Amino acid sequence: MVRLRKTRAEVEGRWREEYVAEEEERVKSWRREQRFNYVGGRVRAVDGPAKVTGRAIYTADVALPGMLIGRFLRCPYPHARILSIDTSHAERIPGVKAVYTHLNTPKIPWHTGMSYLMDTTLRYPGEEVAFVVAEDEAAAEDALDSIYVEYERLPHVVDPLEAMREEAPKIHEGGNVFGGGSPTMQRRSQILDYHTPLRR
User: Which of 36, 71, 109, 200 is 20 to 30 A away from residue 22, measured at CA?
Assistant: First the structure.
């Protein structure tokens, strides 16, 4: 049996009503005295012994012939501009195959074309500044430590209420990640960018 369910959906701060077709399946009720193999009982984890003994193999444990290691150098500031970057020392480290920055990579649109990957303006702690490709992790880490970056620190806010004020610093020229929407949504987009977690 198919029935239509009316629902409301939000896209970038705008609500609209939609109808969704649902196929209803008749489910037979369980008897009170019914017993099951897994529901309500203890289930032994299939990978439990391998994990607790250290024999489990994870993605980081895989090493294939000719495999390279990639590492990002990330911005330490919540809002900054790259004034200069020098990768010459990193490129000369044995085992380093390539170092990519905004100087030698194509402009790949990000945030609906309002910024780019490897941009010169950095909008949250952890945004990508450079990418190192090396033969092993040690060479990659040494290369990251050898990259010199001169930053201009820009105004920022971290408090959600402050970010909603009209005079709050804008993280994009338009002040809006989504390329549209109300001023409230523009302020929310700032909050989202400023609270992006730092990861390497």
Answer: 36
The answer to whether the beta carbons of residues 200 and 74 sit under 8 Å apart is yes
Report residue 163: phi and psi, to 5°: -65, -25
3-state class of 88 per DSSP? helix
Q: Report the number of distinct structural domains present in the chain.
A: 1
**What does pTM read for this prediction?**
0.61
Q: Interior CA angle at 50 toward 46 and 52, to 5°?
A: 110
pLDDT in tens, 22-32: 777 777 888 88
**In the prediction, which pLDDT does 24 show?**
73
Closest CA to 180 of 13, 10, 16: 13
CATH code assigned at 105: 3.90.1170.50
Structural domain including 116 reads 66-194
